[in-house]
Amino acid sequence: MNNSTVLLLLLSVIFAGIISYYQYFYKAKSNSKINWFLAFLRFIAVFGLLVLLINPILTRKSFETIKIPLPIVVDNSSSVIELKANESALEVYKKLISSADLKEKFEVQSYQFSNELESTESYDFKGTQTRIDGVGKGLKSIHKSVNHPTVILTDGNQTQGSDYIYSFDENKAVYPIVLGDTTSVLDLKISQLNVNKYAFLKNKFPVEVFVNYSGNKNVNATFSISQGNSVLSRQNVSFSNSQKSKVITVLLPAEKVGVQVFKATISSSEQEKNTYNNTKNFAVEIIDQKTEVAIVSAMNHPDIGALKRAIESNQQRKVTIVKPNQINSLQDFNVLILYQPTTEFKSVFEKNNLANLNTWIITGLHTDFNFLNQQQTTFDFKMSGQQEDYLATFSSQFNLFAIDNIGFENFPPLQNPFGTISSKSNYDKLIGARIRNVELDSPLLAYTENQGKRTAFLLGENIWKWRLQSHIDQQSFEKFDVFVDKTIQFLSSNNARKSLVVTHENFYNSGEAIEINAQYFNKNYEFDDNARLSITVKNKATNQTKSYDLLKSTNSYKVNLDGLSAGNYSFTVTENNSKTSYSGFFEVLDFDIEKQFVNPDYTKLNQLASHTNGKTYLANQVDELIQSLLANENYKPIQKEIVKKTPIIDWVWLLVIIALALASEWFIRKYNGLL
Questions:
Q1: Residue 604 CB coordination number (10 Å)
Q2: Which of 117, 153, 186, 217 is the most exposed place for a label (fewest CB within 10 A)?
Q3: Residues forming a β-bridge with 428
Q4: What does each C-alpha distance from 574 to 161, 528, 537 come to in angstroms?
């Protein structure tokens, strides 16, 4: 309370006293005891009102002792059981939390972690993943500005996340207690396997395998990859005390369509403590992208042979050359190339109106442009009988798909009749046309899409010269063939929009998050956030089914199916209002990453302790840890001064006292006839 407030309070006392004296003594006709009591009540009321007007701030100080937090974090993953360290972990934990000396000095806190950090005092060691870096990040957010030690009971074997050494605050000491036997034993292990999720039929796909060895003697091992009872690859691998890791790369053939499951195995004649980590299953989805392409032409031309060779350079493409009158059905084809269409193509266009195949139209000197104007709605051709050479100009703004400029500007010109080409709808231009140095508005190669149907236009013949020139420039047909394949890929893709779109993997490892996402669109193809989506999952082996509701997130619906055992599953996602459904399948592979370890990672935990100026302890050294924490002068309790300021206007009782004083004064005066 400052000096001015004290002065005002003194003046209030004087003013309240003067008012009381003037009312009940100066003007009073008698000097009775009642006047003294009434003067007191008037003084209390006036002084109380003046105090409320002045509103002084009352300050009260108190002191609180704050203990330094001591998080004790226990690894609750199943690898602790696999290392037969769960009982010792519980013994160490109980000794730490029951220490009266630790409780007197620290605020002891209990946490557990597997894939995330949680506050708890019970442990079952059933976690399917180990994420130690989450411990460091979690403690940083809980104790942001407090310098505290951390005791972590773990085997140090992380299965998820980033390098945990740098996730902890380097200014806050970490004391790892190593769980498990640190004695080195002989062990062969497939530590990592890299493979693409998808491969194309009849191609080969690479598998990269990292194999580790722990031991002190030379070992000869055999690495193999099998599918069912068939061994697809086998090779010998040697390890020594100086050569403890190998990277093995194998090319496997993609011979069957669908999800194919393989098994990688490393084995030797030596006795191992843990053979579970010698095997790792993996899966690849084999996709048959075979595209049947029909080149329809009423004439012979070198362009046809050049296109056939370029397209079939991709083994997933097959080209059939037919005349217009030889086509009875389009059901056997995925893409049509109409080379210089004339009126003979009328039946082909009519059949395609029903089949709705994507089309590549190539024009030239023999094209009937009046007929072509009637069969398509993208361009309006007004051509003369005069021949013209059109040079190419690459459009860098093209973004329908990724394509490089393979030197189009240096290619020989294409021939097409001279005339005016105007657009009747939007199109994307990949290659523009120019006559000598004059740029034209019309394209040389363009793409369009209308109601899900895609069409490409090449407005000129003699593209065979482009392929030849590309070979001269690059000493290979590869770049030109890739350019043609990009167009075929664009035309063979079906981009039709669906009302229910479901995203999922075809296989998951045991213990991984099994998440399925879905989006539902209304008739205007707008995301419908009022949809009601459910999923039914069926185990193909047991026929057991389970149903779940999909929960809405920001722009999708999702469901988490964690906990499914290894096996094959089919599922159906249904929108319950419209009854729209999507069916699919996935496989859960038998792979428990927590069973991969034979020793704790003592080296890594020691690095963590050194990085944070802590120290590593074994399970039988817990008493040394307790004494070290008690003796550490950096972790003294903090005495905190608490200053509480209260404005007098917040005192409800003061208002009550003023009201009682005024009411009592009025009642006494009324009772004694003084009003």
A1: 19
A2: 217
A3: 447
A4: 34, 14, 12
Confidence band of 397 (pLDDT split at 50, 70, 90): confident
- CA dist 274 and 266 (Å) reads 12
CA distance 462 to 303: 6
Residue 174 in contact with residue 609, Cβ under 8 Å?
Answer: yes
pTM score, whole prediction:
0.57
What are the helix (H) ranges across 493-620?
Answer: 602-611
β-strand partners of 199: 286
The interaxial angle of helices 86-97 and 622-631, nearest 10 deg, is: 30
pLDDT of residue 565: 85
| Per-residue confidence band for 383, with pLDDT thresholds at 50, 70 and 90 | very high
Phi, psi angles (nearest 5°) of residue 277: -80, 5
Cα angle 179, 185, 188 (rounded to 5 degrees) comes to 110
Give the containing element (helix H, strand E) for 37.
Answer: helix 33-54
pLDDT for 525: 63
495 pLDDT exceeds 70?
A: no
Backbone phi and psi for residue 426, each to the nearest 5 degrees, phi listed first: -70, 145
Note whether 639 and 65 are within 8 A (CB): yes
Nearest 10 degrees: CA dihedral of 402, 405, 406, 410? 160
| Residue 574 pLDDT level (bands cut at 50, 70, 90) | very high
Q: How large a percentage of the chain has pLDDT more than 90?
A: 48
Query: Which has the closest alpha carbon to 598: 277, 308, 205?
Result: 277
Mean pLDDT for the stretch of residues 90-116:
92
CA pair distance 99, 89, nearest whole angstrom = 16
- What is the residue whose two structure tokens read 């394949």? 485
Q: What are the DSSP calls for 484-526, one per residue?
A: HHHHHHHHH------SEEEE--SEEETTS--EEEEEEB-TTS-
User: Widest CA span of the chain, in angstroms?
Assistant: 139
Residue 537 has pLDDT above 80, yes or no: yes
- As a whole number of Å, the end-to-end CA separation of the chain is 40
Q: What is the mean pLDDT of the chain?
A: 88
251 class by beta-carbon count within 10 Å (0-12 exposed, 13-18 middle, 19+ buried): exposed
Written as one letter, the residue type at 409 is E
Q: Is 236 helix (H, G, I), strand (E, B) or coil?
A: strand
| Structure confidence at residue 30 as a pLDDT band (50, 70, 90) | low
d(CA 626, CA 622): 6
Helix ranges, 219-368 (H):
302-312, 346-355
- Rounded-to-integer distance, Cα 245 and Cα 214, Å: 9
Out of 24-38, 54-68, 533-547, give the one with best mean pLDDT: 533-547
